[in-house]
Design brief:
five-stranded mixed beta sheet; 10 strands; mainly beta; elongated; 130 residues
Length: 130
Amino acid sequence: MAKVSQTTPVKDIVFNQGEDYRFQLNLYTGTSVTDKQVLDITGFSFTCKVRGEATDDDPALTAICTILDAPNGQVEFHFKADDTDGIDVDGSNYKNLTEYTYDVFMKYSNGDETRILCGSVYISPSVSNR
């Protein structure tokens, strides 16, 4: 049987319920350090959604995606505190993380789309900021 390889990078993240959470990506072409070049993302768009399960109809969270520097391939994803405050968590204290799944899609200027990042989001329940 053939072995399946994961082609999309996987990065798990942890954030706190009721807080803003931001992360940035610097995008490059190439497959190794020696052949990588900055990817100009002028005209591109991005989507980042969090769901309890990939098959859920509605996302639990949707990031605001902002291109910071298109010629240098920099994009930021922001989950707002008001949105993270409303997310369902199972834990009774900060150590009991609730797991969700997320991915980031990049839409090229020609309309093609590709998933560029995926993983789990672990959310720590808030006590004071609710």
